[in-house]
Amino acid sequence: MPRPIEALIHPDALAHNLGRARAQAPNARVWAVVKANAYGHGIERAYPGLRGADGFALLDLAEAERLRALDWRGPILLLEGVFEPRDLELCSRLKLWHAVHCEQQIDWLAMHKTHEPHRVFLKLNSGMNRLGFPPAAFRAAYARLQALPQVDEIGLMTHFSDADALRLGQDGIAHQLAAYEAATDGLAGERSIANSAATLRHPGRTAHDWVRAGIMMYGGVPDFPEHDAAHWDLRPAMTLRSQVIGVQDLQPGDTVGYGSTFTAERPMRVGIVACGYADGYPRHAPTGTPVLVDGQRSTTVGRVSMDMLAVDLTALPASGWGSEVTLWGEGPHGSRLPIDEVARAAGTIGYELMCAVAPRVPIRSA
Fold first, then answer.
1. Given a cut of 80, is residue 169 above it in pLDDT?
2. 11-222: CATH superfamily
3. Is 35 a catalytic residue?
4. What is the residue-wise DSSP string for 27-68?
5. Does residue 262 sit in helix, strand or coil?
6. Which tens digits make up the pLDDT trace of 20-32?
7. SS3 state of residue 198
8. pTM recorded for the entire structure
């Protein structure tokens, strides 16, 4: 039989979470963000749950081609725009919308030969300081695009750095929102400024014409642990599960795993699970990281190795060889382990765990 680890993708959860984005911003259209292969879920597997979106947003032209191959005929937005002039040819062929965040991209558009003008989103650097035109240069960039026959509609966008929390003890979006409003005042065009965090926390101030729903589509919570998935009524779209493949009885003083980082202080039963860092589970997850065994809460014990990790079965006498272990997501008997809890214990974020599931792990739709 194959090794028992697998990842399950839940299209019904994706559809539910898309509905939550709509409920938060009822007057806006929703970009379902599917960059990084739909946050590790797989574009083809995520598509049935997200096809009710108004558009898809991503980074890679190859992923855009995959969406068109699924017969998606609606808008697709390249969030970082094009990376070289010939990318514009594919944008024309696939009818892609694309961000414009620098003068070079405008230069390429000016040289591009196309029968149909492009729809673009001009990006403002309102304080994130990654991509985008600074406020002082934004209107000039808008005027350049407006003068090009290669450009049809011009949207206006920015990205928040602190929509999920306070910034330096103050409102996390106020400084960027003020910069955006000043730079775009009086300019025509559809607006898109809300990421998942802004959609959940500040919809009345940021929803505008389009919201860009990323992590919330997959059941991750951008402001965890202040709020959890239950607070926002989000459901996990991915379950990573395996089985106990061995059981060890420990006496006080026995250690577990490489480096002997865990020492038993009392008699214990530990289960060995077919999951390790080569599967994408974080090696730096410490003893005490939550897991579910047969739907019941337990924790990891000792260091995560390449192919295995250990879990505490001491308080679970009915569990043992063959027991189902939920590393995150939906467990048996209606149980659930939010990915954000696992990520926090490991000192990372749920986004990284979703994207890090290894190619050797079988993935299928539930």
1. no
2. Alanine racemase (3.20.20.10)
3. yes
4. TSEEEEE-HHHHHTT-HHHHHHHHTTSSEEEES-HHHHHHHH
5. strand
6. 999 999 999 999 9
7. helix
8. 0.96
Residue with tokens 């070289």: 84
- CATH fold label, 238-365: Lyase, Ornithine Decarboxylase; Chain A, domain 1 (2.40.37)
Strands 324-330, 210-213: pairing kind: unpaired
> What does the domain layout of the chain look like in residue ranges?
11-222, 238-365
Is the pLDDT confidence value at 66 over 80?
yes
End-to-end Cα, the chain, rounded Å: 20
Catalytically annotated residue among 113, 258, 277, 281: 258
What does the pLDDT look like over 245-290, one tens digit per residue? 999 999 999 999 999 999 999 999 999 999 999 999 999 999 999 9
Instruction: Report in angstroms the alpha-carbon separations of 19 from 25, 87, 238.
Output: 10, 33, 17
Is residue 39 among the annotated active site residues?
A: no
Residue 254 tokens read as: 């026995």
Q: Which of 35, 39, 218, 351 is catalytic?
A: 35
